[in-house]
Specification:
Bound molecules: adenosine-5'-triphosphate
Number of domains: 3
Low-confidence stretches: 1-61, 66-108, 296-311
Radius of gyration: 30 Å
Catalytic activity: ATP + H2O + cellular proteinSide 1 = ADP + phosphate + cellular proteinSide 2
Distance between the termini: 54 Å
EC number: 7.4.2.8
Domain SecA family profile: 99-700
Domain Helicase C-terminal: 539-729
Biased composition (Gly residues): 20-45
Strand order of the largest sheet: 1-15-2-14-6-3-5-4
Oligomer: single chain
Mean pLDDT: 78
Amino acid sequence: MSDSTLSQSDSSEETVASTGGVGAMGSGTEGSGTEGNGTEGGGPKGNESDDGAVDAGGASGMTTLPGSTLSESATPDPTTPNPTAPDVANQRRSGDPSASATSFLSARNLRPRMIRWRRQLARVNAFEPILKSEDDATIRKRSLALRYRAMAGEKLSTLLPEGYALCREAGRRALSMRHYDVQIVGGISLFEGHVAEMQTGEGKTLTATLPLYLHSLVGKGAHLATVNDYLARRDAEWMTPLFDMLGVSVGIIQTEDDQGARRKSYSCAITYGTAKEFGFDFLRDRLLLRAQNRMQTEMLGGGDGGFSDSGDQVVMRGMHFCLVDEADSILIDEARTPLIIGSLEDTVRDQIVESYRWASEHAPSFEIDEHFEIDNETKKIELTARGRGRVRALPKSDLVRTMGLVDLYEYIERAVKVHREFLLNRQYVIRPSEKDPNVDEIVIVDEFTGRLAEGRKWRDGIHQAIESKEGIEISVPTGQAARITVQDLFLRYPHLAGMTGTAATSASEMRRIYRTPVVRVPTNRPPQRKQLPPKVFGTLESKFQAIAEEVRDVHATGRPVLIGTRSIDKSVLLSNLLKEMGIEHEVLNANNVEREAEIVAAAGGLGRVTVATNMAGRGTDIKLADEVESLGGMHVICTELHDAARIDRQLIGRCGRQGDRGSYRQYLSLDDDILKGGLGVPKSEKMKARGAANTGSADRLANMFTRAQRKVERKHFRDRMVLMHHEKERKKMQREIGQDPYLDTPD
Ligand SMILES: Nc1ncnc2c1ncn2[C@@H]1O[C@H](COP(=O)(O)OP(=O)(O)OP(=O)(O)O)[C@@H](O)[C@H]1O
């Protein structure tokens, strides 16, 4: 490898250095029994760079797990270097995502959490022979027993070894996939609230089953958030046989689902969906609770247990644990994206108002003991079987009829309570509203002082039930547009973890914002991806000409070639050059996404050439044709640096999957956009002029591009931090004046 080796290197060099400070990550709870990031005590702060900004460019603060030395044995020795691994140090320096921890992870680096994880792994492995000898029914029984223990309050970390071993056994039986040791360790890190960086093709889907299963045991739901409906469905359906074997239900949220379907999916032990849908459901639920004036008492999904098919019950049961797939794109790139929904629909509002009226009208006919009972302690009114029968038999308007029965029982119970216990001129008075004297309103009488408690309202729909009893206007809020950012949404989960192929460059940001330290999970098989020295040209034209020539040369050997471009224009430009050379190829860009899966699936075939713009992070595996492996695997050409090194790494990760052979090369030119962002316009113009005049090699300038990329990354990071600060201040202010920051949106 030449000295001028280009890379996302500078940052990676820091990775190595600061990974020596692996322990920096471990300042959270290191003792055993750590459960999720909720108890992590929060990660330490990101590294401050000279200019005071957090180092976004470097992977500082990354923890790297013991490498492929995590052999499939009960007591792996992470210190053994892997003799078959290629030049790992060079790869690491070069920012190759596959760089495994093997060579630099000495015993000295082994931090307590790693030692703990290895111990946990040994415990998981110890269960294996026992479980293997048991039949399916016994495996299921064990799983049920675990659930009882979890529900009874036993710590999940104690249950982890058996839980993960059960999951692994179920995977082996139901899917013919046995979780590798590295996947088990990755799963442990996820359970403890980390973002696990796993290379593409290393099996994130299977790894996810581990923390999802374990967290689901407590019965509060475990969510997997991914980027689109297709992946949510695909992954859920793929993993369902495994969960079935363990007696765990799986729900899938799809955009077109109605409220009833959503509620059912959320009531499952594990729910797969997109971040967007989770956000919208959160907002819709919140609007509904506010309309029913139940917000303060019922924290979202605190749940009153009732399920119905009407829109009058929240759909989520709570936000307990969420595993975010493609964490870098969801938690970082999409972090500031606001999810906005309109107001509560008029029909839902009318339905609520009408139900209050209906309940108030019929409540007096319900008799104590016969139709309802009063709990002495809680003073709660509960319908008897006869009472419920009566509710079913009562006449109802169309609007009321569409309300679920469970909801109607609740409306009646509330109305009965109000008729019995809330008396006019004792607990409340009626007087003309200050805002509009033509409208009457209920004002609470403070039971201690006897004074009017201006502006206060009873909760849980009591206030509305009284309004309805007195025949005055029912104050169901009209509902306003509601809004939440992706970041706020995920910060609401007490237990959060993530998986990604490329988190290294966002490590400090992840930790700082979400308190989810990033850990790099080594590949199961030693990586064999080779980085070829980068090439730098004066102009785009000369660069593309050279790229086309390289494609021709590699193509002649029969190896498949994948070329990533930054824009549709450039993909077309390259496509034309290839056409001129008579090289058959496919172009994958926004103009033909419908064929994406097909094109990507075929991209690993003998002699295939594929030109692609920013490929979606994942979706379809590029499987190499058998004969390709012996020829040297796939060759990837990166035609330009992206603003975020992560995107480059995503492309690079397309070759050399799961220990396959492969190679990649970075092409650069002095008129690349990254220089404008990183060096500023005047300097980049100078470089451009220099490039136009110079026809020789400029390979020695490769590092300048990497530095420019890091500058751009830092700038984006700083912008995100400033925005986050403003948002935080806004929310704080809104709370102080009694507003709901999600519902009372300023825009
Ligand atoms: N433990 C295992 N045993 C056998 N096959 C496995 C195992 N883990 C993963 N695989 C296989 O590896 C392939 C990649 O898995 P998966 O799609 O989950 O990877 P990924 O990490 O999500 O990659 P990408 O980011 O590209 O989607 C799948 O074909 C899967 O069958």
